[in-house]
Amino acid sequence: MQLSEPEFQHIVKYVKDRYGIELGRKRVLIAGRLENYLLREGYESYGQYIEEVEKNPTGKEAGKLINVLTTNHTYFMREFEHMDYLKRVVLPWIMNVQRGKGRDVRIWSAASSTGEEPYTIQMVLQDFFSLDEGWDTQILATDISTRVLQKAKNGVYLEEQIRPLPENWKRRYLHEVGQEQYQMKEELREKIVFRQFNLMDEIPFRGLFHVVFLRNVMIYFDEETKRKLLDRIYEHIVAGGYLFIGTTESIGEITSHFQCLQPSVYRKVK
Ligand SMILES: C[S@@+](CC[C@H](N)C(=O)[O-])C[C@H]1O[C@@H](n2cnc3c(N)ncnc32)[C@H](O)[C@@H]1O
């Protein structure tokens, strides 16, 4: 099946307008990831498929499109310096400001992919708050792809995926569920609320966050899209709250709202 230039441009525009993701130079990726599916489903052309997607932007075909076109690469212990920073600086601050105010910790993993990031955050939280009772450490994890969210909710990983985790975490937070397969224990899974959310949309979540992890997702967005997203996120962080972005990313020239504490670690100025 041939992906014509107008069909390619049509898909690129649709994905950019709706999800912010730039695919202008990803012709091979689009064709490679969609062709088999379209043939299997009996589509005669990419044009016919994209028409179907546009007819129902929240339907099955639109979901399929975003599920195949997003890049969901992630792994345990990625950019672990952020978790150290969380433990060393951010959680003591939250403990201090929230002790008399409901003991509520509000953290959002805003492009959580298959769950490695929010589960790692949750393990850090459980360790940190284990000695002090009564803290609500439930966190929010969102992604646009329902496929990765389902995987994250199940919390099942291969032995080689969990290999980088410290032994005491493996013992405490995972259990074997099959050959070379491990699952995050219920006590951890129930502390993460997984939701589909498009970062292009208005943020619907009630209450302000103490910390937002927005790591390795803005690389797909253009400057204007990033700026608007950061403005929206800024409005949903408490004064003094933190933002972590990917260590290879920078928001310095895009917004002056956040104070840069060190590369990839930002704070909402009071
Ligand atoms: C490379 S992963 C990053 C995972 C994790 N934060 C990390 O740093 O390892 C990027 C994730 O962003 C998600 N994503 C891309 N565009 C999005 C959008 N418009 N709204 C929400 N999530 C999006 C993708 O589905 C993908 O799972």
Any overview of this molecule?
This protein is α/β, with parallel strands linked by helices. The protein has 2 domains: 5-69, Chemotaxis receptor methyltransferase CheR, N-terminal domain (Chemotaxis Receptor Methyltransferase Cher, domain 1), CATH 1.10.155.10; 81-268, 3-Layer(aba) Sandwich (Rossmann fold), CATH 3.40.50.150. The protein is built from 11 helices and 10 strands. It has helices at 5-19, 27-40, 46-55, 60-69, 81-98, 116-129, 146-154, 159-162, 167-173, 186-189, 223-235; strands at 107-109, 139-143, 156-158, 174-178, 181-184, 192-196, 209-214, 237-245, 258-262, 265-268. Strands 6-2-1-7-8-10-9 form a 7-stranded mixed β-sheet, with helices on both faces. β7 (209-214), α11 and β8 (237-245) form a beta-alpha-beta unit. The protein is globular. The mean pLDDT is 95. It binds S-adenosylmethionine (SAM). The site of S-adenosylmethionine (SAM) has 24 residues, from loops. S-adenosylmethionine (SAM) binds at residues 19-21, 70-74, 78, 111, 113, 117, 143-145, 148, 198-200, 215-217, 220, 246.
List the helices and strands and how they pair.
Elements: H1 5-19, H2 27-40, H3 46-55, H4 60-69, H5 81-98, E1 107-109, H6 116-129, E2 139-143, H7 146-154, E3 156-158, H8 159-162, H9 167-173, E4 174-178, E5 181-184, H10 186-189, E6 192-196, E7 209-214, H11 223-235, E8 237-245, E9 258-262, E10 265-268
Parallel strand pairs: 1-2, 1-7, 2-6, 7-8
Antiparallel strand pairs: 3-5, 4-5, 8-10, 9-10
Helix pairs in contact: 1-3, 3-4, 5-6
Residues 19-21, 70-74, 78, 111, 113, 117, 143-145, 148, 198-200, 215-217, 220, 246 line the site of S-adenosylmethionine (SAM).
